[in-house]
Write a structure and sequence with these properties.
Blueprint (H helix, E strand, L loop, with lengths): L2 H22 L11 E5 L5 H19 L3 E3 L5 H9 L5 E4 L1 H10 L2 E6 L3 E2 L1 E6 L14 E5 L4 H7 L10 E5 L2 H9 L5 E5 H9 L6 E6 L5 E2 L2 E5 L4 H11 L9 H6 L29
Amino acid sequence: MMLKERCLISLRIAGFMSVMGLLWGNPVYAADNGVISFTTAPTQSLKKTKELYGPLVEYLAKATGENIKLVPARNFLEYTGKMRKGEYDIIFDGPHFVSWRMNKVNHTPIARLPGKLVFGAIVKDGGIINNMKQLVGKKVCAVNSPNLATLMVLDSFPNPVQQPVIVSARSFKGAFKCLKSGKGHAAFLPMGFWKKFKKKGKTDGLRVLYTTKKKPLPTRTFSISQRLDAVTRSKIQKALLNTDGEAGAQPLLNRFNRKKFVDAPSSEFKGLSRLLLSVWGFHE
């Protein structure tokens, strides 16, 4: 390769990296001295993440007097990679991740959204599927793991070689449309999502085949690293449990249609890390 061509390639790479730097800004890392990093699963855009969680993080920093910073992950690869290394101090995500962090990176659950999570398998009326065993080897519409709805329903298929084949959807709405279009024999959804669509009259011709109501899960939860001292952990937990009416918490609480956060006993998360055994990087 000629020197001129090499220089042009180097300039293009440098330009690309500069653009990415402008897009993502200067990152804050958990290892920075005096900074308590807060993150969440990257289930929405960077802009939306900042809109939902930025005010809450500002409230927590003001309420505790600690230097707490929002550190959004760009994708699940980055998110799970840094999580497995224990790089985040406070994380808000699903109970399966919380359980794993309790066992592997010394995190403790400190607060969560009220309520319980129940998931289900939805099929078409009059179809060939009448029980879960008939889904073995069949195509099903679902958000790819480590999505909790997918992992929880697949938990009813203990033998990995006798599981359905996932037709990937980007969202629960996408999985719902996938089923209706006939691309799969079933869709794996949160029952809360199903109930909302039922109220809107969008579930005609569909029925619930199976639900996890006999083993409901805790909702999204805040966990905190034991790297932080007990006094700091206690201050942050107290601030989260006293967000009722606090403006900084409202965007996030409104997103999940809740009024406050509640206590999250560690016992609620016992054994849930098993749901991640099939996910790369989370094998025990």
